[in-house]
């Protein structure tokens, strides 16, 4: 009740303020405004007391404002596990439509009385380092600029980039100050301890102070007492403290009162606040960044995601199809949307592309970007956008927005700022899905080291090891579902979308000999670097030369791309498995410093990534493609091996004989062979344009293969085949005789040299 009264009072005050601000502009008068009082010709209002319209907190004594698991994005979190096209589900949705509508109306009414201000942007870096000050700090690596929610420390003790702001002194006079630049209705503070593997530090209680000029400060009050807010009990769990009375100011300070007994004054923080219109602010009229695309910009839980995908298929039924590839541990379905001019069917020569998001459940931005992409492509296709029409007609696109729906639901329940760095990252069983694929790298490298001729070791389609296929293997059902999906569809190109950094990584992710960090390139390193560069160079944040690093690594020196192993080794990654077990090239995109951006950030993030998402898909049409056919039957040959000279990584043709080989511009010698056929060689030219070069191959069966097939059918061997077999035997005989004669001549020459050398020494 106390919270509701304070909230209602804040809303009433804000309305009064806006009304008076408007009058102020009209009268062209100059009046003072601050958090302490608001002066007009008729009255003086004390903000911290009279804003409640006579109501004050009921508790006179000092109150400890404790952790609140308030979800900042208020949405229904119930789960619906039925098929999108299931009739029973359709009926239930229809029956509940009125109920949902009533619930939405109640939600709207609640939003009118409950402030839901977004974060200022300490975590997302919208708040510049220059806006954060502190009373003191131990060293530069623990300066005020490091006091950002979820910031991660370097791996060295005493690193230049440490995991919090830490005051130099352990007393109650220390503070961390944030300048919001504009007048802001402050509503709350989120606190976290220090991120470090070397020490434990956090603030247990704190005060909040507000100011308009950073000189005169007023402490937040709980009735007649200074409000004491509850902080942390461990380094990582974010704790939300709501101000008893939302208050307008420009500056805010966090003033620690107590801290972990064996630690020091260290914290990471986020501030919640709504910008207030100010007639005296010359920058107040600047347009807020956003997006012109009319998309559903919000965080979607499982039920809402399913509804959105369904709505897209209803809007664009001719080019979309939703299907499932399996279920999570708790039974949530892994939904995929296909976008194609012929949904549900692989078309000869048309490459298959996929985006995978939500492998780590709390990295929510990728999930929303994929859902945005579905909506965008549907709308733009209907408008006749030629770029989108070309993508849809020439590519079969598969979009998996949530590979780890169980983890996402956990993070979603907490909310965008309160989920922390790891809440919801893992599957329900506690498995990190990006370490859960078969480690084929070391199988290949071990085979190369022990083989007499390493060049003969298979460099593609490496089979899954037997231990991994056992029922008791620690393999998540989500991972098994994705592997089966990858085996069923001949994907050519993919990207999996993550969060927490701003960089694009490419294989190999796993290093040789288990080195923690080591550049470990593939045979297609040049093309992988191109793929990563395509995304990074079109991402509006990555290309900003003035952007701040996310945590402790500066990837701008690498043009915002890096080999996965050179960053940190990841055995069992999806990227490496995709490359070594299938034909598909895949990279990882770290989309944002903030894993779970607030809903207000989603339109901006869509604009940051829209061009990157589109141009990356278009790269599936680079290189060469064609069909491998039987010369006599004209039928496609499946599993034909396509070998490119100087590229020690082969690919195979799909079931219909079509293939796609991603390559940079250049001239290539390409050899194709299949079991029972003579090899065929062609030279193929790849140009600069993003259009594939057509390189078809026609293979001729060997006489032995033809003989096997005829005998299997019980037929008579044709005379021409008998002659060819006889000629083949003669060629083999001559070749073997020639080899024997050469070996005999070489041995005789060695004996003569030995005798000659021995005679000279005598």
TrEMBL record:
An example Gene Ontology biological process: proteolysis
Superkingdom of this protein's organism: Eukaryota
Needed co-factor(s): Zn(2+)
InterPro entries named in the record: CarboxyPept-like_regulatory, CARBOXYPEPT_ZN_1, CARBOXYPEPT_ZN_2, FA58C, Galactose-bd-like_sf, Peptidase_M14, Peptidase_M14_domain
Keyword set includes Kinase: no
Basic and acidic residues bias (residue ranges): 79-114
Ranges of Polar residues composition bias in the record: 66-78
Annotated spans, Disordered: 66-125, 741-762
One cellular component (GO) term of this entry: extracellular space
Keyword Hydrolase: yes
Transmembrane segments: none
Main localization, broad class: secreted
Any GO molecular function: zinc ion binding
One Pfam family named in its UniProt record: Peptidase_M14
Range of residues in the leader sequence: 1-23
Compartment(s) where it occurs, according to its Swiss-Prot or TrEMBL record: Secreted
Residue span(s) of domain F5/8 type C: 115-274
Active site: 590
Domain Peptidase M14: start-end pairs: 298-620
Keywords: Carboxypeptidase, Disulfide bond, Glycoprotein, Hydrolase, Metal-binding, Metalloprotease, Protease, Secreted, Signal, Zinc
Family statement: Belongs to the peptidase M14 family.
Name under which the protein is recorded: F5/8 type C domain-containing protein
Organism: Amphiprion ocellaris (Clown anemonefish)
Lineage, top ranks: Eukaryota, Metazoa, Chordata, Craniata, Vertebrata
